[in-house]
């Protein structure tokens, strides 16, 4: 079961998403987190902190969970 993350803007970056989803404590941790853990967006691995996530995107972080952007 995916957790739903609601955004109020057109998109958010992967770094912002990690903080919003409570995966990391602060935005500054995003760079280090992405170096250590695999992140899959819509089934494709992507480690770019600035990757834009839009409504309908699926984010899977093994060991942390699956998320849907709304």
Q: What do these coordinates show?
A:
The strands form two sheets. A five-stranded mixed β-sheet has the order 1-7-6-3-4, with no helix packed on it. Strands 2-5 form a two-stranded antiparallel ribbon. The chain has helices spanning 14-20, 30-36; strands at residues 3-5, 11-13, 40-41, 44-45, 52-54, 58-61, 65-69. The chain is globular, with a radius of gyration of 11 Å. It contains two helices and seven strands, in the order ββααβββββ. The model has no long low-confidence stretch (mean pLDDT 96). It is α+β, with helices and mostly antiparallel strands. Strand 3 and strand 4 form a beta hairpin.
- The total tally of domains equals 1
Give me the CATH architecture, please. Roll
- Shape descriptor reads globular
CATH topology: Structural Genomics Hypothetical 15.5 Kd Protein In mrcA-pckA Intergenic Region, Chain A
* Oligomerization category of the chains in this entry: single chain
Helix content: 10-25%
What class would the helix/strand composition place it in? Answer: alpha+beta
Strand neighbour order, sheet with most strands: 1-7-6-3-4
The CATH class label is Alpha Beta
Provide the descriptors you would attach to this structure in a database record:
two-stranded antiparallel ribbon; 70 residues; Structural Genomics Hypothetical 15.5 Kd Protein In mrcA-pckA Intergenic Region, Chain A; alpha+beta; 31% strand; single chain; 7 strands; 5-stranded mixed sheet
């Amino acid at each position: 079961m995916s957790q739903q993350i609601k955004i109020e803007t057109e998109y958010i970056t992967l770094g912002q998403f990690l903080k919003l989803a409570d995966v990391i404590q602060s935005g500054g941790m995003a760079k280090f987190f992405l170096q250590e853990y695999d992140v899959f967006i819509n089934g494709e691995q992507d480690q770019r902190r600035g990757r834009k996530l839009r409504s309908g995107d699926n984010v899977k972080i093994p060991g942390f969970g699956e998320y849907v952007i709304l």
